[in-house]
Known about the structure:
Order of helices and strands: EEHEHEHEEEEHHEHEHEEEHEH
CATH class of the largest domain: Alpha Beta
Distance between the termini: 42 Å
Shape: globular
Largest sheet: 7 strands, mixed
Number of strands: 14
Strand order of the largest sheet: 1-3-2-4-13-5-14
Number of domains: 2
CATH architecture of the largest domain: 3-Layer(aba) Sandwich
Mean pLDDT: 85
Amino acid sequence: MKGWFRIVPFVGVAILLAALMLSGCGGSTQTAKPAGQEIKVLRIGAIPAEDAQKTRENYTPLAKYLEKKTGLPVEIFVATDYSGVIEAMRSGKLDIAMFGPFSYILAADKANAEAFAIENRAGSGTSYRSLVITHPDSGLNKLEDVKGHTYAFVDPASTSGNLIPRSFYKKNNIDPDKDFKSVMYAGGHDAAALAVKNRKVDAASMDDITLGNMKAKGLVTDQDIKVIYQSEPIPGSPWAWRKDLPDDLKNKLKDAFMNVAKEDKAALKAYGGNVESYEVVQDATYNVIRDTAKILNLDLSKK
């Protein structure tokens, strides 16, 4: 199956859906394709960790590998935000996607998603961390110093770029929406880092994986970015399929992801470098994320 894959831009939905309120967990309405329907094209959803073109380039080796393993042509959808991937899967326009932990629990509740594989990264295993970054010349050295300053989160549905930062700010009696001079959403982890580098904001949230990737590429240096806080480990990002995919296709997908490290190392790089392999993961791994979101009482329909 050579040369089948296509890269298709997907315009992200402007809202996160009123139904994404976590208080409504369990009462979701899904419009995915009926179970057992024949899949003629495998459609992969990509989250916006880096710029769209770079994301497309990163996913291309994986698309080729999955074509070979499943015997299906592959389309790559790059959404403009996390909600775009969730809505695309909810409406049956995507078959599999890699989510952040928080966007995954939303997709599991509202888009019939089910996690089946988790990244295993060099140095961090199957977890990662949320960071608070600032410019080295900002004069900010700890969380309390951020009060009264401008701040960038990543995306309302980002785990390390919104959910976890809000949780550790709350633990330190800091309310970003009241205690910061202004709050914005950068749209991507790389965009948050560049906003700090270019002094568009005084501080920002991002994940350690993207920061490491950007430093390795020379996009930022220690003269541009200073880390003043890092979270406890967070369960890593999962790959999830629609639950109603045919069982034989699920088996092929699981086999592909479990063996990609041995069969095609280039296909490991879909979401940045340093991925060594994928491991089987269960939905329950992300209950800690659900619990954190409930404690914060987040209502994404207002973001």
